[in-house]
Write a structure and sequence with these properties.
- It contains 6 helices and 12 strands.
- By secondary structure, the chain is of the alpha+beta class.
- α3 packs antiparallel against α4.
- The protein is globular, with a radius of gyration of 22 Å.
- The two termini are 34 Å apart.
């Protein structure tokens, strides 16, 4: 598999680069990505990679945290650039062997890495989870009373029918608005979509910001509704417009888990509530 990896192991004090640059984001959004973001450039030392593979990589390895992944790649490019300015070689693997890139070859490699970084930034700005939501669903959310928070809980099986359905529950969506109290005069609310789904006992949660960028960091917390609100995941984020934060909570096969999601802004006090909930297993 020809995959480009920005992060690298080190040999002596120099980074060793696998031929190919990154694989990453959400397969369902691949077609839309091709329409809005350039393809990843490639050459003999920078292998071909698709949007879909990169989307999947970031989703799996970084839990959908694009800002952290992009920062790692930007830091790596700075290190390689410093190597080039010092007149040193960058060892890379190529065709099963090792090649030391110097001079114009190394400069070209850095230029390709920077182009790929621009594609990464383009992909990170796409509302990939929002693409999954139909226009009708979002319109329904917009008509919610006062446009305020909506909690969506998957329907539990009827008590008289304990048999578990073989069909996994459909993904659920919730709309949430956070007040903007930092700006003067106050700006429009920050609009979020929370999407939840199950893969067996595994809970999958995505929080997409479809409104204005956060004015300050906030916390997204996933907790167990069936275990005294025990926190299982938490992340401090400052979501920009159309950015997404993803969570995966591993469950035990055959054991039902009930999870709640709470978005806590730092710029005003909301009080703990359940912004979205799901039951998996």
């Amino acid at each position: 598999m020809n995959i480009i990896v920005f992060s690298a192991t080190r040999r002596r004090r120099f980074p060793l680069v696998l031929a190919g640059l990154g694989a990453m984001l959400f397969a369902a959004a691949g077609a839309a990505a091709a329409d809005t973001c350039d393809p990843f450039p490639s050459d003999p030392y920078v292998g071909a990679v698709s949007h879909e593979r990169v989307i999947d990589y970031v989703d799996r390895k970084f839990a959908g945290d694009w800002s952290r992944y992009i920062q790692l790649q930007a830091d790596r490019i700075r290190r390689i650039d410093a190597l080039a300015r010092a007149g040193k070689a960058l060892p890379v693997r190529h065709d099963g062997g090792r090649v030391d890139l110097t001079g114009s070859d190394l400069n070209h490699y850095i230029a390709m890495a920077r182009k790929r970084l621009r594609v990464l930034r383009c992909l990170s700005r796409r509302p990939e989870t929002v693409i999954e939501a139909s226009a009708a669903n979002l319109n329904d959310f917009a008509t919610a009373a006062g446009g305020s928070q909506v909690a969506v809980v998957p329907k539990a099986a009827a008590a008289a029918k304990p048999k578990v359905s073989e069909t996994p529950p459909a993904p659920q969506q919730a709309r949430l608005q956070l007040r903007s109290l930092v700006a003067s005069p106050p700006r429009p609310p920050h609009d979020l979509v929370i999407m939840t789904s199950c893969d067996g006992a595994e809970a999958q949660i995505k929080v997409a910001n479809i409104g204005a960028s956060f004015p300050a960091p906030g916390n997204i917390t996933v907790f167990r509704l069936d275990a005294d609100n025990q926190v299982v995941k938490t992340r401090r984020v400052q979501l920009g417009t159309k950015q997404v934060s993803s969570f995966t909570v591993k469950g035990q096969p055959g054991v039902t888990g009930r999870y709640g999601v709470f978005v806590d802004p730092s710029w005003y006090f909301r009080g703990r509530t359940v912004d979205a909930a799901l039951t998996c297993g």
